[in-house]
Amino acid sequence: MAEEYGRVRQMWHLLEPLHAVVYYAPEVFEEFAALGYETAERWPSYFPLRSAPLGAPGARQVASAFYSFSPHKVAEHIPAAWDIAAPDEVLAARMRGIDRAYRTILGDRADSPELAEAAALVRRAAEAVNTAGRPLAAANAALAWPGEPHLVLWQAATILREHRGDGHLTALLTAGLDPVESLVSFAAVGAASEKTFTSRGWSEEEWEAARERLVARGLLGADGVNEAGRALRAEVERRTDELASSPWAALGDEGRDRLADLLGPFWVEVLGTGMMPGETTLGIGKV
């Protein structure tokens, strides 16, 4: 079973950059600037870009679905974002942006048979997701499929990424970790530096209060993470992999192996742009 979940995590590692490029690509920022969003930093476009499939959600809905962000940070951008552009305009802009970004990054490979084959396999997995209790996965899965394979690849990767993310929140809730505690505990096991997690907008007082709650529960020691804390985080990650596994079962071992081979070169191209941060709050490669 551990090997099976390792393969599930491998697929996430391969697909995550192909999805997340939408948050960093200059072509996407240009599309959102044209709508009227500030693009000096990524947050004014990030919140509407990611939440638009939900309709025009309010700050409380977005904070709930995104989980790790401070409600105060969310409220800086939502619902004001919908006064700049309607959700359907945001969705169209993100698709135009990823279209341009993929064509810039992949060049002729965007129209290659290999990409078309990979897109078909990822779509098959995405269409197998169970979206019950998974709001972001369900909202993205309800969108119409684009026609071009490279856009199908991105949309399918996004559905699967949000499906995994929704399941991760279930694992955190089951572990009794509130939004800020989830970050403090994740930083403690070395997923990323505390500085990286400041992007979620929690104050120093909120961070320290969460740390004190974890110490009181025996999940952190005076000098940092302890055995109980590591065990709980390991269980969260195991449960996350378990909850993310069902779509990949639809491909079978042969389909997953073929997809991993196909995605490798595209993964290399995206990482080779240098636009993706070297350290993120996801802890890829760290836990």
Task: Explain how this protein is built.
With 287 residues, the chain is an all-alpha fold. It has one domain. It is 67% helix and 1% strand. The chain has 16 helices and two strands. It has helices spanning 2-20, 26-35, 43-51, 59-66, 71-75, 81-84, 87-106, 113-126, 135-141, 149-174, 179-188, 194-197, 204-216, 227-243, 246-249, 252-272, and strands at 220-221, 224-225. Strands 1-2 form a two-stranded antiparallel ribbon. The two termini are 18 Å apart. The model has no long low-confidence stretch (mean pLDDT 94).
Number of DSSP-assigned strands: 2
In terms of DSSP E residues, the strand content is under 5%
Query: If strands are numbered along the chain, what order do they take across the biggest sheet?
Result: 1-2
Percent range of helical residues? 55-70%
Gyration radius (Cα, Å) is 19 Å
Low-confidence stretches: none
Taken in chain order, the helices and strands follow as HHHHHHHHHHHHHEEHHH
Ends distance: 18 Å
Overall spatial form = globular
Quickly count the helices.
16
* Mean pLDDT value: 94
Helix/sheet category: mainly alpha
Largest sheet: 2 strands, antiparallel
What is the number of domains? 1
Could you give a short description of this structure?
The chain is 67% helix and 1% strand.
Key terms:
16 helices, mainly alpha, 287 residues, 67% helix, two-stranded antiparallel sheet
Set out the fold topology.
Elements: H1 2-20, H2 26-35, H3 43-51, H4 59-66, H5 71-75, H6 81-84, H7 87-106, H8 113-126, H9 135-141, H10 149-174, H11 179-188, H12 194-197, H13 204-216, E1 220-221, E2 224-225, H14 227-243, H15 246-249, H16 252-272
Antiparallel strand pairs: 1-2
Helix pairs in contact: 1-10, 1-16, 2-7, 8-10, 8-16, 9-10, 10-14, 11-13
